[in-house]
């Protein structure tokens, strides 16, 4: 039953807009005035990418049964006849008859200081009507927005007391504060979509409170700035590849860089020598017949992003290619403890380097 | 892939929310990632249409990408106008009903996205939301998470929704191989997998290892019966050596290839290579000691050797660029000491250009004073010097 309401909420989440009531009122007044007076108008919408400018426009114009036509500025630059094409689309007849029809134009811009980057002849022609999509919310408004997104208005989920009780049992005031300090409402909408998708995805017999809390914890971890998915690939590698990566990490974690503008790097050959040290001393089963096999493994680690190759040097001999770590060394040390390495190999990597 | 993981992937790919406009499936290529995902998308019964494109084939060209997508979907699109492409998809594609228009675009080899201009590919992935009545979902298949391919990820936005495609574990590999090869006994397969799994986790590679090991085991077998573990081990080692490089007692023929390659070189080219190797790996202050006073006969005391060992550990051992004139002078010293004939009439710059075009040295710097860096390894240099009867170790400051 809770999952059905979550499914309804997930379907309705696309049309739900929170936190933009003032902007909605301003645009609604503008569109109503345009329709009633048949007079052309232009307006600037400022905001960050993903703040909901187009979604709000779509929602308002859908109420008036008007389709929003989107034109990219680059398209205007390369296509000189775009105005004629648009006029023909509207009327279906000749071009001259439609030049006197009124137009309602919304200029959607991203940076806050775009007027300063324009030339003077352009900025003097900009419309004076400007709607800014930037709001500051306190935590209580953020929590109300979360409840509105989890149970969108005019749906069965919003009017169900069982679902409302379920939302109260999530206790968002405990874990929502970290999201509030980092992100705004557009990211909250995505996090809510992830949580709802996990709830809908769960099997009905396995649905319980711990599962929902696990979904919330995963969503908050996914949204946190220190989310690092590359280290999960380390579990998929074979033992040889894991040892090659840990040898590179062992060499690079305390190595100073050559200058202030570069990072610490190591050549393929030094990684192979470290690997030979591990094989000869600690774990004989990992022995390889040639160093080219280890070089191949280092190339594979570069391909999946765990190591980062130095692409500026033109080196044809593989021994002298350089790599550096693609992941933070402290995170690697924390993650390496969760790997199920043999005891001898773990002893080699935890021992201090002489 | 187990049932729960598959259900998670299906729910991630085929839900009706617009928040998941881009799903990245990452993981090992050897686990059959792209093939499995394309099969799941192509044979779905959730009402989503399917289109395939290869970013590696497009090779950084937005025009090629839109052209291949247009041919795949069956619409006509001119040039590289992304918005016109979306409108053509909405109007001209043969949708079965007008109620829902949902399409999944599967972009294979998504690691090639770094070849595209950043603004073009980000506009392509985001502009599908601008079309009313059309819902597009991009599914990319890449070895690494999407954050590795974003040059400048915007601050304050979530990363791309991702699915981790895991390779099969050892038990699943055993079951897969026994499905393909039912004649091989389970004990044999389990023994091979247990030994080889620490080197490679690719099911195809493991299948070939098991096949080759079983073929050589039956070939050398005296009769059916109890499994001989000693013979199994030797057969497995010989088959693993070719595929995953496991060490064997047999000598590999790589050294023979190197010897044959360098013995066919002219003698002047060999002298020049050895000279460039000495110039790249020695400090210029040691030239007088090696090539003027002692000529390789310098006595090495134990204290100096220990000091050199300490210095070698701190040094990053790699070839350094050396002056071209220095290389030529070392070459002349070697010729006067070890060559039987006179090489004074040879144009050394032509020989140096030939060696550089073969990739054995790199030449950098201005044309008036080029700098030479030798890229051959110490083993190759020792072999070349041995063919010229030069004791290369005596001319190196730090022996390797």
TrEMBL record, chain A:
Superkingdom of this protein's organism: Eukaryota
InterPro entries to which the protein is assigned, alphabetical: ORC4, P-loop_NTPase
Chain coiled-coil ranges: none
Gene Ontology MF terms in the entry: DNA replication origin binding
GO biological process, any: DNA replication initiation
One Gene Ontology cellular component annotation held by this UniProt entry: nuclear origin of replication recognition complex
Protein name from the UniProt record: Uncharacterized protein
Organism, scientific name: Caenorhabditis auriculariae
TrEMBL record, chain B:
GO molecular function, one term: DNA replication origin binding
Family annotation (Pfam families): ORC5_C
GO biological process, one term: DNA replication initiation
InterPro entries per the UniProt record, alphabetical: ORC5, ORC5_C, P-loop_NTPase
GO cellular component: nuclear origin of replication recognition complex
UniProt domain Origin recognition complex subunit 5 C-terminal: residue ranges: 265-396
PANTHER family reported for this sequence: ORIGIN RECOGNITION COMPLEX SUBUNIT 5
The protein's name: Origin recognition complex subunit 5 C-terminal domain-containing protein
